[in-house]
């Protein structure tokens, strides 16, 4: 799992567990070489002001952006995964879980919460890539299912923010079951005529893409996000051909009909609420 994503830029390879969702220290250097103060970056919604690069962020930052005054009630915050398969790779899965929890302060790769956004109540489920590559295990699926149930019970919109390397191999079939489980829950949400907004961020891949990430009433993304099932290298090796420029970026995916629109992070809260207002026939808020 530690080698799911390796970035090959200027000869550097960064393993999943070494990546950080948000910049640390006084300065941040974007992939294009632009330097920005971390404090300025935070004020700019974690978007590099010079090159508009959207830095990877986690649930903490998205909740700050989307919930009014950063006020929300977290749901099911103490659920954590077990190790039913006694899985061992380079280390025991139970040890990997403990290390990820200590490093990130999270119980698993997702947080769910309910609060108000532009005055309207909403349930938000947000994945954290810093926790074992945002992999989708049984806890991720269960928390999404419960968040959907909460939105259905309260009759409020549901926003899913995906940021994942796909299914968690250490949980095998238990992980894959979550694709069907979350899809079934979303079908129930649709039957109840409750809005579901899916936000695909960088990266949204694997089983996540094959299930809830692409089942929104409206599917949206941020600029430059990687969205796909298999990675570009795997696809290229499979088809034996060079891939189009920008393959699997959010812009490419939108052009081919899998996204409804792409929004800058500073406009995210307004765009989500605009859609909710329109679909619920509410007065549009400025």
TrEMBL record:
One GO-annotated biological process of the protein: fatty acid biosynthetic process
GO cellular component labels: acetyl-CoA carboxylase complex
Catalytic activity: N(6)-carboxybiotinyl-L-lysyl-[protein] + acetyl-CoA = N(6)-biotinyl-L-lysyl-[protein] + malonyl-CoA
Pathway as given in its UniProt record: Lipid metabolism; malonyl-CoA biosynthesis; malonyl-CoA from acetyl-CoA: step 1/1
Residue ranges, annotated region (Disordered): 1-26
Protein keywords: ATP-binding, Cytoplasm, Fatty acid biosynthesis, Fatty acid metabolism, Ligase, Lipid biosynthesis, Lipid metabolism, Nucleotide-binding, Transferase
Main localization, broad class: cytoplasm
Domain of life: Bacteria
Enzyme nomenclature, EC number: 2.1.3.15
Pfam families documented for this protein: Carboxyl_trans
InterPro entries hit by this protein: AcCoA_carboxyl_beta (IPR034733), Acetyl_CoA_COase_Trfase_b_su (IPR000438), ClpP/crotonase-like_dom_sf (IPR029045), COA_CT_N (IPR011762)
Function: Component of the acetyl coenzyme A carboxylase (ACC) complex. Biotin carboxylase (BC) catalyzes the carboxylation of biotin on its carrier protein (BCCP) and then the CO(2) group is transferred by the transcarboxylase to acetyl-CoA to form malonyl-CoA.
PANTHER family with a match to the protein in the record: ACETYL-COENZYME A CARBOXYLASE CARBOXYL TRANSFERASE SUBUNIT BETA, CHLOROPLASTIC
Record-linked HAMAP family: AcetylCoA_CT_beta (MF_01395)
Name of the protein described by the UniProt record: Acetyl-coenzyme A carboxylase carboxyl transferase subunit beta
Organism: Flagellimonas maritima
